[in-house]
Amino acid sequence: MATRVLIFGCFVAFASATVKLQEIFSWRVLDWNYPDSYSRQNALASGALTPENALPVGIERWGNKLFVSVPRWRSGIPATLNYIKLDAPYDPSPKLNPYPSWKGNELGNCDTGLNTVYRIKADRCGRLWVLDTGTYGYDNATNLCPYTLNVYDLHTDQRIRRYVLRPEDIVSTTFIANIAVDIGSSCEDTFAYFSDELGYGLIVYSWEKNNSWRFSHSYFMPDPLTGDFNIAGLNFQWGAEGIFGIAPSPIKSDGYRTLYFTPLSSHTEFSVSTSILRNESKVEDGSFNDFKVVGVRGPDAHTTAKVIDDLGIQLFNLIDQNAIGCWYWGRPFKPQNIAVVDKDDVGLIFPSDIKIDDNRNVWVISDRMPVFLEAELDYSDINFRIYSAPLDSLVKETVCEPPARVQLNPHTHIQPQSAIYNTNPGLTWHISNIQNKPRIPQSQRGFLRNPLDDNIIATTPSYIDLYYPKQTPQSIGYNLRSSTESNKGPWWSRPTYDVYEDSYRN
Ligand SMILES: *[C@@H]1O[C@H](CO)[C@@H](O)[C@H](O)[C@H]1NC(C)=O
Ligand SMILES: *[C@@H]1O[C@H](CO)[C@@H](O)[C@H](O)[C@H]1NC(C)=O
Ligand SMILES: *[C@@H]1O[C@H](CO)[C@@H](O)[C@H](O)[C@H]1NC(C)=O
Q1: Is 456 in the pocket of ligand 2 (CB under 6 A)?
Q2: Contact assessment for residue 10 and residue 4, using Cβ atoms and an 8 Å cutoff
Q3: Is the separation of the CB atoms in 376 and 69 below 8 Å?
Q4: Is residue 365 within 8 Å of 350, Cβ to Cβ?
Q5: How far is the CA of 75 from the centre of ligand 1 (A)?
Q6: What is the pLDDT averaged over residues 163-191?
Q7: Tell me: the pLDDT tens digits for 375-405?
């Protein structure tokens, strides 16, 4: 159960294993920081500020800023891209500050303004990726400006890139509400992906080429059997909603990430290698079979936002369940391997966005969106909340906890057959030997391989992943033979390894 934390300063230092999401900020209604009360009164009088029309949907944390996006679905939203100062004196309901400035949020100013921003992404290169949909309104939305990618330098708060999506990237029904960023070998080697929920497309932008292209696929479409929603006591149909939540995996042994994606009206998880998405020729060149079905989450598992950490832990919102779910990518994607890390039938009604920051803290914003859109919010009640918790404590003792990582040093003897090691009192780890697995050709032995995809993890074994047998009875083994190790000769002549738990797990 998510709990309320009153003292702001302590949220980054939770050590307890049982910590779930802590409420950091909450609002009945949003408000903005104006330079003085006179300009705020003016904004209220002119209708430039109508607090009850503001619904926060996206979140991102970078340094001492917590970004919050507010779409201009109705009038009176003075800024669509905003931030909260995390180093300011604690205010449980802080006012929003426009980012990068008031001027930079001007409605209808296509060159230097922003109209409507949904989800945003800060990257490890200190850039903030922001897609302006150019729209104003919701059901009656008008397109004031074209879809435009804006990238800001977070160190200087200057916009360093503006790119207008090509007419070929969008269709008449296009509605893009999500963004993912894929950094490759360098900051230059970066791609952004945009999911077109109602146009059923995936748009790719190359930072290096300053160019974009669009993939189409039937996996981007909604499942007609899952278009009925029951959230916050409301029943409604979002049956046309296609590809929505997108998140890149860590870089795999082939040098590419996997982009995971899910249509909103669907319970199925799909994926595609970024080696396909990054290659513009694949749009034309029959890449249909490169898109994969990963698995089915289970019933009541609609999701709009997902994020994957460096170890392959995926977190996603479960909008029907007022909950956050998780999955670890080393385990088959099926309901038994999916857990709920937190659930709150009051505070987590429509957890709209989820992010993991550079300190491995999870951030969640909930906003009761269906009530805002389909009925009316009660402004005497708390409607919007921001939560945080350390990722590792959220997934601790769930099926999403990654296997303990074990270091191998060339002194420990690894049995040629499966072996059991006691690395900790009371903890028995099982290493199963896959040297006899027929699908690994003899000529390719001598590498550490991931048995899930047969990809080489390391040519010189530096670690292996061990599975706690209680969680995964059919533990997944790794090929432990190094290239210098041979089947020939007595066992005492073969290299051996020390086994101990990696320090980051402690
Ligand atoms: C959309 O319609 C609503 C209600 O009819 C109105 O209040 C709002 O101003 C309209 N928005 C736009 C952008 O036309
Ligand atoms: C990127 O493309 C846009 C067109 O949308 C152009 O205006 C801009 O100057 C280009 N930027 C760079 C760095 O090439
Ligand atoms: C891109 O895809 C095309 C068509 O499948 C292929 O011929 C080409 O080798 C690919 N390029 C790279 C860099 O993989």
Answers
A1: no
A2: no
A3: no
A4: no
A5: 8
A6: 96
A7: 999 999 999 999 999 999 999 989 998 765 5
